[in-house]
Amino acid sequence: MKTAGVVLAGGKSSRFGKPKMFESHEGKAFYEHSLDALKVNQLSPLVISTNHELVHRFEREDVRLIVEEESNSYQGPLYAIHNVISKMDDTEWFFILSCDIPYVTAEFVKEMVSFAEESEADAVVPVQGGRIQPLMALYHKKTETNFEKMLAADDHKLVHLLNDLHVLTIPFAEDDPAFININTATDWNNDY
After folding, report:
1. What is the CATH number that goes with domain 3-191?
2. Per UniProt, where does Mg(2+) bind (predicted)?
């Protein structure tokens, strides 16, 4: 089973006030925590999905950078995931992680991959405390046409995409720190 490890790092970080993927935790940029959790599990290739403005800021040589097409408006994660899937024909699964989850662990990635290996599902998605987490999930290559259909309908909501797929959901505890998502600088400075 060939599984790519993909970090989404092309967002606007409008609530954070600056590109949060480069904020530091334990000596590493946020995005590197996601990347390293994928790398420890030997997912290959490792991919960073980003935009033209940020691409020059990534310093890792062990990744493939996939740059989103230039657009007048922000396209969002559904577009970014499709952009990666459509450019990689030799990959079966795509493990997607956002760039702003500095507490994600290699153990979380390993557990999720083990479910995908045994599944006939289109997507394997964690549910934490009853809340679905589509940016910490695996998507099969066969979902490419589903992504295309959503984009053609100008619907960019991942939860709507999931309604159209055979999804295996994996429950996680509400207090699992792997899911801590940093949205604002105030959150980061005050709470973590």
Report:
1. 3.90.550.10
2. 100
